[in-house]
Amino acid sequence: MATVTDTPIRIGVMGCAVIARTVSRAIDLAPNATIAAVASRSLEKAKTFATANGYQQSVKIHGSYESILEDPDVDALYIPLPASLHVEWAIRAAESGKHILLEKPVAMNVSEFDKIVAACEKNGVQIMDGTMWAHHPRTAKLKEFLFDSDRFGQLKNINSCFSLAVDEDFLKNNIRVKPNLDGLGALGDLGWYAIRAALFANNFELPKIVAASPGTVLNESGVILSCGASLSWEDGRTASIYCSFLANVGMEITAVGTNGTLCVQDFVIPFEETRATFTTCLKSGFNDPWVSRPTEHSVKTEIPQEACMVREFARLVGEIKNKGAKPDGFWPNISRKTQLVVDAIKESVDKNCQQISLSGR
């Protein structure tokens, strides 16, 4: 459980994307963080965003990204810019001594992310990606079950998907379908979560082989709108992921072990802010598979998962700022592994579903 620092961590919002509205509220709800500033490339846009999101009068308004980097009253930056801009602005943020909460995908490829991490390490700043579900208390309960050798046993397979049906305007104009902005498309935006779930269930051990599934849908600019992939590990564990802008809502995880089965219906965005559920089924038999009926488990949280994320990020920053602690390397490590799998799936798509080895990467 994160502890509250005496002085809230001062976070600047660097960019006025739609997701920044959600994270702005999360910063307000986190007990150890406060919004100190907001920046856009237009002063007017920054002012409008601040007003629309109920920012306090004390919040500084910056009309450029350069300006917020120089603000001495900002400890950390939340960066929801398009992925193609991350490598430039995250590095500049690190060089300015700002801790970084970076939206996903963290970069256009792992080479770019390695440069970001190197800058963070050189300047002693924390970096964490914006995968909110990782911080929900339900996720800790999922981990308990998945790594319980008696109840779950050895993982054999995990399926994870994240799909959202978008409209025609989105398909024509959204940054997620533009190769020069968020050019990884549905893979980077939605597939990131499904990949993270597969890695999470495998204790973040990278798969040996990754292969895109046939049927990837690209737009006329070559951006992925829908795709699937298979992942396999040395000992026979497998995973399948699916992501799409062209299918109805799906946010499921199904993990099957030698002794148990885990199902989550809403792993990315829980149905309710303060309560989330999952089901488990234990030790069924061949002749009577439902001898053990699925059991529903409920996990409560006082604040939504995005505020849990901000709270943990602010706790880590506070430890560095107030106690001289070192940045926690766990978060950039799992970001890098997620990006590696994103890159491998993209490479496989580009090579007509060829198997891609992750050995040594």
UniProtKB/TrEMBL annotation:
GO terms for molecular function: nucleotide binding. Residues 146-262 form the GFO/IDH/MocA-like oxidoreductase domain. Residues 9-128 form the Gfo/Idh/MocA-like oxidoreductase N-terminal domain. InterPro entries: Gfo/Idh/MocA-like_OxRdtase_N (IPR000683), GFO_IDH_MocA-like_dom (IPR055170), NAD(P)-bd_dom_sf (IPR036291). SUPFAM superfamilies: Glyceraldehyde-3-phosphate dehydrogenase-like, C-terminal domain (SSF55347), NAD(P)-binding Rossmann-fold domains (SSF51735). Belongs to the Gfo/Idh/MocA family. This is Gfo/Idh/MocA-like oxidoreductase N-terminal domain-containing protein. It comes from Brassica carinata (Ethiopian mustard).
